[in-house]
Specification:
mainly alpha; Multidrug efflux transporter AcrB transmembrane fold; 7 helices; 67% helix; elongated
């Protein structure tokens, strides 16, 4: 139903049971789309009674649908990573050790978005999914090297210490190359790149947190839950 400006007073307009109204609005500066949808739904619940129903359209509808899809994609990504690593290492414990940096990466990404006043939008969520694959490589380097040293006869603690020291330079170099490659996105360099700033900030913040903590936490977790015996293949 389209409203047009007329000379008649507003009370002359009447709605029947099949009438509908479309409300369009623009976000104020600094307000996220998700916050705007929540506020609109709150106002609708206070003003409208149970005989009215509301539905989203356009960008708001795409945002709501993508939010649920992103959560499913995150769970699916973690599951696939675990299954692939379990097949590669022929163990159900080693993938758990490798996946631990994902928690640090998520914490770093969310903190970075908050610190730089960015929102958790579709671009930042895509960056978080990409981040999950990037941070697991650090754990793979340490666990794989530690397993090799353990097969050579070293104790678990000695093997993981040597792995952390030996893999320090490759981990730092690969993390820095990733951060420098994403940096232009975070700095909004290029036409139309402002909308993708949150993705760059999420990836860089998550990589920094995960890289620093991985070098200390992965060896600690490995020394506790890794098998003390070498598996015979």
């Amino acid at each position: 139903m389209t409203f047009e400006e007329r000379s008649s007073p507003p009370q002359l307009y009447r709605f029947n049971r099949y009438s509908s109204a479309k409300v369009q609005a623009q976000l104020a500066k600094g307000v996220a789309l998700g916050d705007g949808i929540k506020e609109m739904q709150r106002i609708a619940s206070e003003v409208l009674d149970e005989s009215y129903t509301t539905s989203l359209d356009g960008a708001s509808r795409e945002f709501a649908e993508s939010s649920s899809s992103i959560i499913l994609a995150l769970l699916l990504a973690v599951t696939i990573i675990y299954l692939v690593l379990a097949g590669q290492f022929e163990s159900f414990l080693d993938p758990v050790i490798i996946i631990c940096p994902i928690v640090f990466a998520l914490a770093g990404a969310l903190f970075s978005l908050w610190y730089f006043d960015q929102t958790l939008n579709i671009f930042s969520k895509i960056g978080i999914i990409m981040l999950m694959g990037l941070v697991t490589k650090n754990g793979i380097l340490i666990v794989e090297f530690a397993n090799q040293r353990k097969e050579q006869g070293l104790a678990v603690l000695d093997a993981v210490k040597e792995a952390a020291v030996s893999r320090f330079r490759p981990i730092i170099m690969t993390s820095l190359s990733t951060i420098l490659g994403i940096l232009p996105i975070a700095l909004a360099l290029g036409a139309g790149s402002e909308s993708r700033v949150s993705m760059g900030i999420a990836v860089i913040g998550g990589m920094l947190f995960a890289t620093v903590l991985t070098l200390f936490v992965i060896p600690a977790i490995y020394s506790y839950i890794s098998s003390k015996h070498v598996s015979v293949k």
